[in-house]
Amino acid sequence: MKPLKIALVIWKLDFQGGSHRQFLQLAQNLKDKGHLVHLFTRVNVPNQCYPLLQKKLQIFFPNDKIKIENKLISSDSFILKLFKYLNNLFLNYNEVNKLKNLIELKNNEFKYDIFNFHDNTSNTISRFFPKNKCIWMMNDLPPLIDSYERGITSFPHSLIGKISKPFLRLIEKHNSSKFKEIIVLDKRNKSLVKKYFAREAAAIRSGLDLKSNLNFNKKHKMIEVLLTGIFQPHRRYEDLISALKMLPLKTINKINIKIVGAPNDKQYFNKIKKLIKINHLENKVILLGKVSEDKLYHLYTNANIFIFPNDKQTWGLAVFEAMLYGCATLVSRGCGASEVLKNNHNTLLFLSRNPKQLADKLIKLIDDLKLRKKIAKNGTIFVQKNLSWEKYASEMERIFIKTAKSS
Question: Based on the domain organization, do 236 and 111 belong to the same domain?
Answer without folding.
Answer: no
